[in-house]
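hey so u asked for the seq, here:
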Amino acid sequence: MSATTLTTTPVQARTWLRRLLAADALGTGINGLAYVAASGPIGRLLGIDPGLLLALGVGLTVYAAAVGALAARSSPPALGVRTVVEVNLAWTVLSFVALFAWLDPSTAGRVYGSFQAVVVAAFAALQYAALRAQPRAE
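ran it, structure tokens below
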């Protein structure tokens, strides 16, 4: 069995990075729109204040649009990608702090919140790896 790298050519690295950014934007956008459209029912299920979910939904929707715009570029700039990685890492940390120190979510809220935080951390790690796989501009 042979080991394979994340990417093998600059074009593949750029394509992989753009796909990761697009998937991140899609998932974030769906979450954001759901929080905006149904903050009451989702808040009751998760045990989280609907007003907080509504505000998060607006923020997530705006963030998703920005990440989507970055993904649409033929060659996303490294600074933009690093910013996405850092925001994703900050979101992960703040999610866990909020779930276990600030908020009092339901069991479903703790499970869902932890799951989404881990997914966001995975996106950050994969995006960082894809960025590192790209050749450096001279």
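The mean pLDDT is 92. The first helix runs from residue 10 to 37.
lmk if thats what u needed
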